[in-house]
């Protein structure tokens, strides 16, 4: 099983009959350039009228390949530039061949809203791995949904802080790192490993073979998951027999126990849930942290502003509390802005329609595949003031005027997706990122070599830097 399969947030495909549901876009933007009227029913156009490349480009499989080198200037890695080009040519909705199907690309927040808010019963997924057997995993899905919410995200806060401190101590010794993503992979593996297995994996211990290394190799990765699941199961069963389980759980809330206690799930199924979480939780958060720290390094004025906020809110306190985090609006704005500048999911948020739907004036039939082109919207000056700049201020509650126009288009930026199948790890990831960023910026001034002016990315499920990121960590006095 590939790590892509484990990490991808778009597991397999299932088919069920669903009700017909019709709606059309209702968002009203106040910015004159983007106000759009809902079409009268007589004006609704058929799917065949959705614009897009035609002729050879619409031949299954071959059509998609013709958009790339050597036929055009775009490499596969530059698909987002190609899509932005297409938007300029065809407008906010266009379709292109994706294998043998059509993929409809959505470039306007109104239409993104219509699609994300539509009614989905089964949430078919667009799979990147044809060997996927979702039916197997569907049985455990309810477990995942039950886990959605604040409680389990809070489970690991105290230990999270402990190993964030270890991570910071390591950085104090190192002073600079040549591969920031690798360091952060260790941090996020430790973090999500603690969530999944209730124990430290030792990723941050000097001189030890890092489980993060193990995690990038799929076979060993599954070994870690199944061994730890079995260990955890045995441990909890022993506590239960000894009558000590309740006491243990009160002191040490346990994520895996909530799955084991569910009774509907076998150990294999729990391994499957946990491997999803473990896989999805490593690359996603590590890359997001890399880009956040890189943006702060590239924008020292914003870093100074964040440091001021941290000093004001946290001061000399050794412990970060949730009250501290609640007050740090600039920190949250920095993360949101960093995710806007570099959208974490390379392909954007994807959906398959389960019933007919009018989107942007077109009648889209059931089973239409949509890609919300978040990256293109993020750089669109109809929705963002000076979109190429890192401006966390645009997200602050008190900011008004043109700079804040992004707040009128919440559906342009959904880095964790939306609705019942939105990211299950959002709160956990945000906590992890906020704690790490606060501790790092509190302790260090971060910078990159002076010749680095921007971050280039490469196309993976989770957007990742195309080159190793070197970062200096200069301890603050
Ligand atoms: C910054 C970090 C992360 C980002 C940006 C991110 C983003 C996403 C996105 C965009 C989706 C698809 C949502 C949709 O289609 O509406 C998703 C799904 C998912 N994410 Fe995350 N994620 C992150 C961290 C995590 C973590 C830490 C975990 C686990 C601990 C996790 C577990 C999952 C799972 C299991 C799904 C599939 C949910 C389902 O299909 O019901 N993610 N994520």
Give an overview in words.
This protein is of the alpha+beta class and 477 residues long. Helix content is 46%, strand content 8%. The strands form 4 sheets. It has a 4-stranded mixed beta sheet, with helices on both faces. Strands 3-11-8 form a 3-stranded antiparallel beta sheet. A two-stranded antiparallel ribbon has the order 5-6. Strand 9 (457-458) and strand 10 form a beta hairpin. The radius of gyration is 23 Å and the shape is globular. Residues 1-33 and 127-156 have low confidence and may be disordered.
Strand order, main sheet: write it out.
Answer: 1-2-7-4
Number of strands: 11
**In angstroms, what is the radius of gyration?**
23 Å
CA-based shape: globular
Order of helices and strands: HHHEEHHHHEHHHHHHHHHEEEEHHEEEE
Category from helices, strands and their pairing: alpha+beta
Number of helices: 18
Q: Which spans have pLDDT < 50 for at least 5 consecutive residues?
A: 1-33, 127-156
Say which molecules are bound, naming each kind only once: protoporphyrin IX containing FE
Strand fraction: 5-15%
Mean pLDDT value: 79
**What summary fits the major beta sheet?**
4 strands, mixed
**Distance separating the two termini:** 48 Å
Helix content: 40-55%
């Amino acid at each position: 099983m590939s790590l892509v399969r484990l990490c991808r947030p778009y597991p397999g495909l299932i088919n069920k009959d669903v009700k017909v549901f019709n709606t059309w876009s209702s968002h009203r933007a106040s910015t004159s350039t983007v106000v759009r009227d809902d079409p009268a029913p007589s004006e609704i156009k058929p799917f065949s009228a959705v614009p897009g490349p035609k002729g050879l480009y619409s031949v299954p499989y071959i059509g998609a390949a013709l958009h790339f080198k050597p036929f055009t200037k775009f490499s596969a890695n530059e698909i987002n530039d190609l899509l932005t080009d297409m938007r300029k040519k065809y407008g906010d909705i266009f379709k292109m061949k994706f294998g043998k199907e059509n993929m409809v690309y959505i470039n306007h927040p109104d239409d993104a809203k219509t699609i994300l808010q539509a009614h989905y019963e089964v949430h078919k997924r667009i799979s990147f791995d044809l060997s996927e057997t979702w039916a197997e995993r569907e049985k455990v899905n309810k477990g995942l949904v039950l886990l959605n919410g604040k409680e389990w995200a809070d489970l690991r806060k105290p230990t999270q802080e402990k190993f964030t401190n270890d991570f910071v101590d390591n950085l104090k010794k190192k002073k600079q790192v040549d591969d920031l993503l690798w360091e952060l992979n260790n941090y996020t593996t430790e973090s999500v490993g603690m969530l999944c297995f209730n124990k430290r994996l030792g990723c941050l211990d000097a001189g030890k073979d890092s489980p993060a290394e193990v995690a990038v190799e799929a076979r060993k990765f599954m070994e870690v998951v199944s061994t730890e699941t079995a260990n955890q199961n045995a441990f909890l069963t022993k506590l239960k027999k000894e009558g000590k389980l309740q006491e243990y759980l009160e002191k040490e809330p346990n994520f895996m126990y909530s799955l084991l206690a569910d009774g509907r799930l076998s150990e294999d199924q729990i391994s499957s849930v946990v491997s999803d979480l473990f896989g999805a939780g490593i690359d996603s958060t590590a890359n997001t942290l890399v880009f956040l720290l890189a943006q702060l390094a590239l924008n020292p004025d914003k870093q100074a502003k964040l440091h001021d906020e941290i000093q004001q809110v946290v001061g000399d306190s050794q412990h970060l509390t949730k009250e501290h985090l609640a007050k740090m609006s600039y920190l949250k704005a920095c993360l949101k802005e960093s995710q806007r500048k570099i959208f974490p999911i390379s392909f954007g948020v994807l959906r398959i329609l389960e019933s007919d739907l009018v989107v942007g004036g077109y009648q889209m039939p059931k089973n239409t595949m949509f890609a919300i082109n978040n990256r293109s919207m993020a750089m669109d000056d109809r929705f963002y003031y000076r979109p190429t700049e890192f401006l966390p201020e645009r997200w602050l509650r008190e900011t008004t005027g043109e700079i804040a126009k992004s707040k009128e288009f919440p559906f342009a930026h959904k880095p964790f997706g939306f609705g019942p199948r939105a990211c299950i790890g959002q709160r956990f990831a945000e906590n992890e990122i906020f704690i790490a960023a606060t501790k790092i910026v509190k302790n260090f001034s971060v910078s990159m070599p002076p010749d680095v002016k921007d971050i280039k990315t490469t196309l993976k499920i989770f957007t990742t830097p195309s080159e190793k990121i070197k970062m200096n960590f200069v301890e603050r006095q």
